Amino acid sequence: MDRAIVLIGVSETRGRLGRLEAVESAVDLMEQWARGQGIPADRIARITDGAGEPVTTYQISRWVRHFVEQDPVEQLIVYFSGHGSMDGRAEFWHLSDAPNDLNAAVNLVVSLDAALRGSVRHVVFISDACRTVSKGVPQAKLHGAGIFPNPIDDDGSRGVDVFYATRLGAPALEVPVRVGANDVYKAAYTEVLFEVLRGAKPHVVTGGFIRPWPLKRALQTLVPEYLRVHGFPTALNQDPDAHILSGDEAWVARFDLGVPQSLPHGPRPSVDPAESPASFGVSPLSAEALVSRVLCHPVDDASLEIPPLHAMTEQARDVLHKAVAAVGEGVPGLEASGLVVIGQRVQGVRCLEYDGAIKPRFGSVGASGSTDTVTFRAWEFPDLWTPKQALVQLRDGSGLLVPIFNGCIATLKWDPEGRMALHYDPLYAQADTDDMRQLQWLRAVVAEAAKQNVFEVDKASAQALDERMAKLQFLDPALALYAAYAYREIGEIDRIRALRDYLFQRLGLHLFDLALLSRDLLRGPYTPTDCMPATPLLSTGWVLMDALGRRLPAELRSLRQYDTGQLWAHYSPQGVQRLAGWLEPSTGQAEAYSMSAPTL
């Protein structure tokens, strides 16, 4: 097999994230491994800032394009060591001029999608970088760039695997390791990865190959063990992850079994007891594992086992606590289809292409069995028969674009931490019915996990979620959006297209995010009335524009700069003005109603 590897290392950026000390040594290890694998020197591209030269997306994409087009290979490995961050579900590798230059980052989401549809049979991304949420405004506005060429074959699907040094929302660690009389910083993940890939753990090698799934499982055990062996407390942990989309025949490392030095001497154990998770006791239930259990079992299912709080990670306890608090909340009693806002003051609402009346009101709603209530503001649309989109402008001038459906109540709710989520309830729904209890429990867990960047699925939980949503007749279209973005990450485009088709039958329209993720927007001309709403509902949709929306009008794509980077797309005051100006010439004059915040 013809193979190539692109090694990227960035020790220092122009942000305030600090210099990383282990980047060069980590890249050295991966280059040593690549040479040991027999990858020719002219197919090993090393791009680092070790000599003081900045690392740019142009340098990286030029090498990637070379191995894709000029010197095509069957397997391309792209390794990165440096700073990383997340914006919603989008991940970025920070390059030298980030965050001052908003494009000085590798947009991993866009790169993955292009690789999936590209010509290289097997692409392996290895990310030894943090996956923490952006906290600074410049960092949160990173756009980044894809490093793979946009493919002509939009429906192709290649084997793409992504190995992450850590789980969603967590840092990747550089740790001081005693070398002689000195402490030297090492990249924990790459140190372990190198040892495994060079064959130092024989039980991971099968028939002369290290394949993606055994590698993922081994790293999940060996990286935490590496930290313990070097004396770090259990509180300092790092949990690697991987998304495996390649087939069973794929491999990452290959050994010539006829050459003994390729593998350590000694018998190959079927299981290394020292590396068994059982030897360290039962690991606490993670937030991701908690979500998986909820997806696979209804709330009243006897097989749904949730362990006591002390047997969960802190994040899992937090997800559970906040989800439970959201379950049982009453549905605002509106008399017509409408929009409800909780936790924010609203300056005005414009309902585009709607000629009927808008009836403002306010009220309060409480949780079932509780005396606690929350105040809401609402706008009823009694003459709404077909879906419309409402531009909601908040008191500070910022805003959101929200679909309004006949027979539904759309609720925008801000929690005490300032995090917003959108959900839908059927008009006249009763919170104490079985379907509503199931819906509230499912979406409470999914929404909270998404807010904390720990919502992910595998093929089994994706199937279970599909079945749960179908049984509930897709009462909440927002739940399908969470699911679709999670399906994209595991390459389940057929599931996304099935969601798109089902919701089209139910609602009579295509939701923008589902059309984007289904790759429909790559196929023809677009006008703002083609989808609902006219822009992505989740911010990750904006990040995917370069890959999946490159044929959309420049005026639409330019609106991305005004998205504030929250989970759900939320626009700055200038963005709201630009959005309104872009929409109204296409949709006609909007019906608008402005209401001061009511006083209770």
Q: What are the SSEs and their pairings?
A:
Blueprint: E1 3-9, H1 23-36, E2 44-48, H2 57-70, E3 75-81, E4 84-87, E5 90-94, E6 105-107, H3 108-116, E7 122-128, H4 137-140, E8 159-164, E9 174-179, E10 182-187, H5 188-197, E11 209-210, H6 212-229, E12 241-244, E13 253-254, H7 287-296, H8 314-326, E14 338-342, E15 346-352, E16 359-366, E17 373-380, E18 388-394, E19 399-404, E20 408-414, E21 420-426, H9 434-451, H10 459-471, H11 477-489, H12 493-507, H13 512-517, H14 539-543, H15 545-548, H16 554-557, H17 573-587, E22 591-594
Helix pairs in contact: 1-5, 5-6, 7-8, 7-9, 7-10, 8-9, 10-11, 11-12
Could you characterize what this model shows?
- With 600 residues, this protein is of the alpha+beta class.
- The protein contains 17 helices and 22 strands.
- A 6-stranded mixed β-sheet has the order 2-1-3-7-8-12, with helices on both faces.
- A hairpin with a 2-residue loop joins strand 4 and strand 5.
- Helix 7 crosses helix 8 and helix 7 crosses helix 10.
- It is globular.
- The termini are far apart.
